[in-house]
Amino acid sequence: MKGVVVKSTGSWYLVRDAEGNLHRSRLRGKFKLKDLKVSNPLAVGDRVEFDVEDTGEDTAVIYKIEDRENYIIRQSTHKSAHAHIIAANLDQALLIVTLVSPRTSFGFIDRFLVTAEAYEIPTVLVFNKTDLYDEDIRNYQRQISQMYGQIGYSSISVSAAENQGMDALLALLHGKTSLLAGHSGVGKSTLINLLVPDLELKTSGISDFSDKGVHTTTFAEMFEVSKDTYIIDTPGIKELGIVDIPPAELSHYFPEMRERLNQCRFHNCTHFNEPGCAVLEAVRRNEISLTRYESYLSMLHGVDNRK
Ligand SMILES: Nc1nc2c(ncn2[C@@H]2O[C@H](COP(=O)(O)OP(=O)(O)OP(=O)(O)O)[C@@H](O)[C@H]2O)c(=O)[nH]1
Ligand SMILES: [Mg+2]
Ligand SMILES: [Zn+2]
Questions:
Q1: Which candidate among 71, 145, 178, 236 keeps its CA 20 to 30 Å from the CA of 127?
Q2: pLDDT > 90: percent of the chain
Q3: Are both 79 and 201 inside the same structural domain?
């Protein structure tokens, strides 16, 4: 039988077949990892072939993984730790951003966007918890949305608490498989509970002490919103490392830099201090946002600006 992995715990998998039935499954014997250096052989979204066996707790055995159309990897910032495939076969990622409770930094947003560019996953920013924004934060959010809009990333604003903006979110999701990503506590599971009634995913408040989420969701899981519309809940990302990108290539994953690359004097320009650099010139003229350029530099130099 053929199916799609909708949940992966590392030791067992939930696979949805074509009729929508779920099978608790395990992987057959030793499974060869394709050259990817990752800790999990199988991820949510993987298309698999499996046999149903009526023995034991895990009733199905996965014996084949189909080639992935795409996938997105979460790289720990600690070099020693393994990379982890968050999900495969995605149409898009929605990065859930909150400007308060908890605050998502530009550094984090830009790291995610670079990762998504590297894996060619279109990304939309979803500002949540807008009910908590005062006038100043609301204006600030508009500026941020405009800045990202200019470089090709669209955004929407929602409030899960007040059920605001859900129509726009549904329209964005329609007919696609979307990954919800973001820090712990930004409201990923809360949003999915609104989109998929009766689901009752666990959610938790923000720690008063750190103003951060408490990592409530522990495994990625895919849910059906409506026919052909799927959404993947994921555990909150604390820190996001950057996939192995050579320094001279990093700017290829910043759309506003990518379009200027052939105007730099040196073809291998890293846009740091080289003479005749078109990117530096654009930063000087405010044509490239300073926060984006700062994110670029921190990634280039491996500086730790995660917040
Ligand atoms: N004020 C307000 N609170 C919200 C909103 N959306 C979610 N919350 C609250 O934020 C807290 C965290 O929400 P979760 O849905 O658990 O967050 P999460 O992103 O799934 O977090 P992890 O599973 O830890 O990654 C909960 O207390 C929610 O009730 C919102 O729009 N406004
Ligand atoms: Mg959650
Ligand atoms: Zn340059």
A1: 71
A2: 77
A3: yes
Atom from ligand 1 closest to the CA of residue 159: 31
What CATH number does the domain containing 91 carry? Answer: 3.40.50.300
Mean pLDDT of 166-189: 97
As for ligand 1, residues whose beta carbon falls within 6 Å of it are 128-129, 131-132, 159-161, 182, 184-190, 203-206, 213, 215-217, 235-236
Residue 271 annotated as lining a ligand binding site: yes
Is 130 labeled as ligand-binding?
yes
Percent residues over pLDDT 70 in the chain: 92
- Helix pair angle (188-195, 166-173), 10° resolution: 80
**Does 264 show up as a binding residue in the annotation?**
yes
Whole-Å CA distances, 14 to 21, 22, 56, 145, 189: 10, 6, 15, 37, 19
pLDDT(256) > 50 = yes
**50 assigned to some structural domain:** yes
263 and 163 assigned to the same domain: no
My answer on whether 85 and 132 are in the same domain is: yes
